[in-house]
UniProtKB/TrEMBL annotation, chains A, B, C:
Residues 268-283 have a biased composition (Basic and acidic residues). The lineage of its organism: Eukaryota, Viridiplantae, Streptophyta, Embryophyta, Tracheophyta. It comes from Forsythia ovata. Belongs to the PCNA family. CDD domains: PCNA (cd00577). This is DNA sliding clamp PCNA. PANTHER family: PROLIFERATING CELL NUCLEAR ANTIGEN (PTHR11352:SF8). Residues 1-125 form the Proliferating cell nuclear antigen PCNA N-terminal domain.
Length: 365, 365, 365
C-alpha cells in the first residue's frame, strides 16, 4: 500500500507540466523517504531527477518500496483535471497495476478519482555522484527562462560563462550574435532578484538551447534557479520544490573546437560552412534527434552515468551517496574508427549488470 | 415590420458564440411574444431552443409573425463587430429579404449598420412537451463546463448519475478512467455556488462528451446551469438569459449494454476490443458524424420529437403547450432489419405533414 | 560613428512590431537630424516612413550621414529580446558592416549586446511633397483598428467617407454589407477619445482592408491616429511617436467603377459575377500579390512618387521639402495596350536617375 496526500496539489501539476514534453515514460520510485523519479529525456541526451521528501506531504505511507511506471503525457492529462487549489492524493494498492489520483476541491464539495494503468518501464538507476561544482549561479528563474528563450530566436546553442563579475550567455546564428550578461548583484532590495555567484574558477561551456528551454518549463515551480557547472561535467539546472525537494536537469556540454565556432561566419543571411567542417563525420551514438541535418555544429551527445550496483548507496536517503569523483566516468564515444575527439559523453556503461530497478533510488542531496 | 432593441447587446453576442459551432443555419421566429429559435445541430443529433421574451427588450415591435433564416456563422461574424457595451437593434422590413443589425456605442458616437441576406431554410417545428423530469441538477455553469472539458481529455462519453447525495460524471478511455462527484450543497456562502438536486428517483445516462462541450460554450451567458434528466428521455441543459429567456440544449442518451462498457478494457495503452463487439453492426440512421470508425460504442443517435400541428399550441406563448406525456414519442430506429434494440431515438415523425413553419413556435416554459 | 540611446526602448520595439510584417528589408537613414526610414511594403503597394528626431534621444551622435540596410524581421527578433523597460542603444562604427543593439535593464544588472550584419539594399528615396489634404480625421487609434478588423470579417475593401458630420467606413462581401460611422465629437470628457474632422470638401475613397489592418498594427505606438485624404492622392495614416516623430503609412486608393461595385450582388451565400466584369482584364503592373484570383475588384495598385534629385531638399530636416503640388505626379499605368483607365498609381518614375541614396532623406513635416 502506497499513499500520499499533497495539500498544495498545484506543485505536482507544475512538475508534470515541466516534464511531459521532455520525458515520455518514467518510473516513480516510492520509498519511506519520499517520492522520486529519475529519467532520461526521450532523445537520451538529458537526465531529470525529481525528489519529493515524505516529510513534505500532509500524509505519506509507503509499506514497501515500489516503482510505478507512468506515461508522463497521460499523467499530466490527469493532473490537469485537478484544480489549482485542489488537494491531490496518489494511491496504489499492493498487487494492483493501477494508480489512483484523487482531487478534492478545498470546499470538499467536488471529488474526482482518476485511475491510470501502470506500465512496465525498463530503466537503469544511475548513481549521480555528489560533486563539488567549480561554479554555481543562483538567479531569478524567470530571468534565466527569458534569456534562454531570447537567445533561441538567434541561435541553437548557448555558451554559458561564469566569472566573478557575472554570468554570460552567448549565441550566434544566421542573423547575428547575442551576448547577455547578468552581473553578480547580492545587494538588491528583494533577495529573490539577486544574482549570486559562488565559484572556484571561471567556467565556460556550450549547451543546446532547445534543452535549456525545456528545463525552463519548470520556472513556475520556483522563483529561483541554481545552475551548477564544472568543466567536463554535465551542467545541473535545479528548481527547488517548496520545502519538499527539487527538480534537477542534467545536460552534457557540447564540445566544439575553436575553429569550428569561428567557421560559422555569416555572410549576409547565409551561413558559410568552412570546407573543413564538411570533412567531419556527424557523430550519432544511439541518439535519435530531430535536428536539421545541415547543422554541422549540432554534435550528438549522450550523457552517461555509471549505474550504481552497490546496494548501500541505492536506497533513497537511507545511505548518502558518497561516491568518489573518479567513480564518475567521462567516456569518449568513438562511433566510427576516426573519432575526432570532440565529444564529452557520460555513458551508462553497465546495462548488462542486471540491477534490480525496484529499490534502486539514488539520493544526490 | 419587425424591430427589437437590446440594451445589453453582449447577451446576443454570447448566444451566437455558443450556437455558431453547433448549428449551421437556423430560422429565428419572431412573434408578438418574443424572438425564438429551434434548430437541430448540423449532425442532427442535438436540438437547441432559444427564447428571448419581448418584455426583455427595451423596444420590441412585431407587426406579424415572421421567420428569418440565418446562417449562424455569418450572424456571429456580424455580432462580433458589436462592442460589448453596444446597444443592438435588429430590424427587418416587410417584403425585404434582408435583416439589419445596428450597433450603437454607449456614447452614441459610433453607429454601425450590418445588413445580411436572409435564407430560406427548410425546417420543422417540433413540439417539445412540458415534461416532469425525474432528476434536476442546478449547479455553477463554470463547474459543469470544467468537468466536461476535463473528462473529454480521458474519454469520449460521460455517464451522468444523479442521486440524493450528488451528481457524478464518469468516463473511461484508453489511458484510464475518471469519476467526478459534485456533492449536493445548499448551504454555501454564495447561493451561486450551490449544487442543488431535486429528484424523484436516481437516474444514470450516458452522453457524447463532444456535445456536452458544445453546450458548455453557453457558460458565459449564465452563472448557473440546470441539467434535467429522465430515463429514456433526452437530457436538457439549460442556461437562463438574464430576465429574458433561456438557451436550452437537448441530447438523447447513448444506450450501451453493460457488457459493451466492460468490453472496453485497456491493456497498457491499447484498447482491447472484445470479439463480440465486432459482431455488432454499426447503426447509422441518416446521421453523418465525424467519429472514428473503430469506436464501437459511438452509437449514432437521433433525437426525434413529434412535430406539433395543432394550431392552438403553436403560437409562441399565446397558448401554453400542455401536451400529455404520451404525446412524446420514443422511437426505436431500425436502420437494417436486425435492429439490436439499443438506440433511444426521438424522431421527427411527420415531415410530410406540410405544417406552416411561419407561425409555429412552441413555448415550453 | 553613429550612436543613439533611447530610454523608452519599448517605442522602438513597437515600431518594429508594426513594420515587420509589412516591410521585408529597409534602409535606416541616420543623419544629424534624426533616425529615419522610408520603405515600400513587400508587394510594392504601400509606403512607410518613420522619423525619430535626434532631440528625442537621451544621447544622439551621428558624425556623418549613413544608411543602414536591415532586414525588418531580423531586427524585430533582436528587439523582441529587449525588456519593455530596457534602455536601447544602437551603435554602428565607421567602416564596419554591422550594427549593435544594446539593451540595459533599468537596474543595470542585465546587459545584452546583439550584433546584426547590415545589408546592401537597393532603394530610391522618394520625395513626398508637403500636401494640403482635403480631409483630415483625428480619432482614437484603437477605434480605427477595431473598425478595420471588424470590416475585414465582412469584405476585402473599405470605402472611407469623410463629411462634416463624421467619418464612415463601409464594406461589402459575400455575407452582406457593413457601414460604420464615427460622428465628429470634440466635446468628450477625455480629448483622447475625440473624433475631430478638419476638411475643405468631403472625400470618399476605397482601400484594401488588408493594408489598413497592417497599418493598424502600429496602434500600440499612439492613442490617436490621423487619417489624411484628398481625392486622387494616396491616403496617409499617421501615428505620432511620443515627442520624437511619427510613423506614416501611404496607400493609393482603389478606383472602381460604380457599376463594378453594384456588380457584386450577393445572392444567398454566393457572389454573383456580372458577365461584364469578366470581360475586364486584370491589371497587374509589376505587383505580386497573394490575392485570390477570382476577386475581380482586387485591382492591383502601385503607389508612385517622384524621386527627388534636387539635393537642397534631400537632406533630412536641413532644408524643408517645399515642393509644389504639381511636383507630385499621378500616373496612370497602362500595363497592356487596352488600359481601362481605372487605376490611380503614383509611380517612382526615375529609377535611372542614379541618385545617391546615402544622404537622401526627405523631411515631410
Amino acid at each position: 500500500m502506497f499513499e500520499l496526500r499533497l495539500v498544495q496539489g498545484s506543485l505536482l501539476k507544475k512538475v508534470l507540466e515541466s516534464l511531459k514534453d521532455l520525458v515520455n515514460d518514467a518510473n516513480f520510485d516510492c520509498s519511506a523517504t519520499g517520492f522520486s523519479l529519475q529519467a532520461m529525456d526521450s532523445s537520451h541526451v538529458a537526465l531529470v531527477t525529481l525528489l519529493l521528501r515524505s516529510e513534505g506531504f500532509e500524509h505519506y505511507r509507503c509499506d514497501r518500496n515500489i516503482t510505478m511506471g507512468m506515461n508522463m503525457g497521460n499523467m499530466a492529462k490527469m493532473l490537469k483535471c485537478a484544480g489549482n487549489d485542489d488537494i491531490i492524493t496518489i494511491k496504489a494498492d499492493d498487487g494492483t497495476d493501477t494508480v489512483t489520483f484523487m482531487f478534492e476541491s478545498p470546499s470538499q464539495d467536488k471529488i474526482a478519482d482518476f485511475e491510470m494503468k501502470l506500465m512496465d518501464i525498463d530503466s537503469e538507476h544511475l548513481g549521480i555522484p555528489e560533486t563539488e561544482y567549480e561554479a554555481i549561479v543562483r538567479m531569478p528563474s524567470a530571468e534565466f527562462a527569458r534569456i534562454c528563450k531570447d537567445l533561441s530566436t538567434i541561435g541553437d546553442t548557448v555558451a554559458i560563462s561564469v566569472t566573478k563579475e557575472g554570468v554570460g550567455f552567448s549565441t550566434r546564428g544566421d542573423i547575428g550574435t547575442a551576448n547577455t550578461v547578468c552581473r553578480q548583484n547580492t545587494s538588491v532590495d528583494n533577495p529573490e532578484n539577486a544574482t549570486v555567484i559562488e565559484m572556484e574558477q571561471s567556467v565556460t561551456q556550450t549547451f543546446a538551447l532547445r534543452y535549456m528551454n525545456s528545463f525552463a518549463k519548470a520556472t513556475p515551480l520556483a522563483n529561483r534557479v541554481t545552475i551548477s557547472m564544472s568543466s567536463e561535467l554535465p551542467l545541473v539546472v535545479e528548481y527547488k520544490i517548496a520545502e519538499m525537494g527539487h527538480l534537477r536537469f542534467y545536460l552534457a556540454p557540447k564540445i566544439e573546437e575553436e575553429e569550428e565556432i569561428a567557421g560559422q561566419v555569416e555572410t549576409g543571411n547565409r551561413k558559410e560552412t568552412k570546407s573543413k567542417l564538411e570533412k567531419k563525420p556527424e557523430v550519432k551514438p544511439m541518439v535519435v534527434e530531430e535536428s536539421e541535418p545541415d547543422k554541422e555544429s549540432q554534435l550528438k551527445l549522450e550523457i552517461k552515468f555509471e549505474p550504481k550496483t552497490n546496494s548501500e548507496v541505492n536506497t533513497l536517503g537511507e545511505t548518502k551517496c558518497k561516491v568518489e569523483s573518479d567513480d564518475y566516468t567521462l567516456v569518449e564515444t568513438k562511433p566510427e574508427a576516426e573519432s575526432n575527439g570532440d565529444i564529452c559523453t557520460l555513458v551508462e556503461t553497465k546495462p548488462e549488470a542486471e540491477s534490480n530497478s525496484e529499490a534502486q533510488v539514488m539520493d544526490v542531496e
